[in-house]
Amino acid sequence: MRKIIFATKNGGKFREVKKLFDSTDIELISLNDFDNIPDIDENGNTFIENATIKAMEIYKLFKRPVIADDSGLSVEALNGAPGVVSARYAGKDASDKENNYKLLKELEKFEEPYKAKFICASVYYNGKELISACGEMHGKIIKEASGGNGFGYDPLFVPNGYDLTNGELELSEKNKISHRAKAFNKLIKKII
Amino acid sequence: MRKIIFATKNGGKFREVKKLFDSTDIELISLNDFDNIPDIDENGNTFIENATIKAMEIYKLFKRPVIADDSGLSVEALNGAPGVVSARYAGKDASDKENNYKLLKELEKFEEPYKAKFICASVYYNGKELISACGEMHGKIIKEASGGNGFGYDPLFVPNGYDLTNGELELSEKNKISHRAKAFNKLIKKII
Predict the structure, then answer these.
(1) What ipTM was assigned to the predicted interfaces of this complex?
(2) Domain tally for chain B?
(3) How many Cβ atoms sit within 10 Å of the Cβ of residue A163?
(4) Number of neighbours of residue A123 by Cβ within 10 angstroms
């Protein structure tokens, strides 16, 4: 097995992506398996820039192959917000709940349906090569949170063609259609 | 023609790379065609990191597709130096001549042949996708500078299989074998 560090401390994200690598010869290692990982300043202007910054910072620490991603929600009525600040929409260290609340607050003055998409940029970096792949999942935001699966805005997002929120979908189902699954499945093809 | 900004102010490098795009539908635009381009802090640890930093910074300014590269010389006896600081080996804003002088000074205590390679990392970035490709050219450093073509360490570098320095080779010949040509030819295949 080749070991690759996945530059995330987010347990939900780690589980989701690890599953995608099940059928490969790559074993993902979580940042939570290491001590004293500094916080990385994700100051890029796009998802791909943030994913690249993360991959490079973690590579610098371990000098081992790394994958990283950055993702977020882009809502049409909000001109693409929350975008790259999806995880801290309601402020630094905001909880998922606080971010969801702020999103619905911002949407109050608009009419449904709230068209939205999740975007994911994934990056592989080994000190010499940088390989990237992106994926999107289109759908809408609903007013009532539902479901305990996933993380982030999942309870508010209903993918096109579904009646369930991402929070209600099983991981196996979400991994067929999600932005992250699409991005990483493309990335896997490029690196295996 | 698609227009892509090539993130370099180095005229020699621009000419060299522009030639490689001759047979494509891509027209390269030089940074020298724009005013007030700030200096970019190339603080990466590797060629690919510096190329990526450059591409992202220039993309931020123009929001248009960018290619960038970073390259340098890696000398075996010097454990890979000058490496990422090739262009400023003798100090910030050092001339090619000063860098060449310093290289020969550092090599004085070693015996010939001075095995070396040029390495180039190239990157394409359009705000969504990041694509990279690398190339190497192997050869040796000689003690007597020769030839006025090219730039950087070219007058001191003799590629394997040649009796001439890079500084003596015609651009058309250099573009068949150079690290930069290899990197950009690979990159071109990925982006056309």
Answers:
(1) 0.70
(2) 1
(3) 7
(4) 29
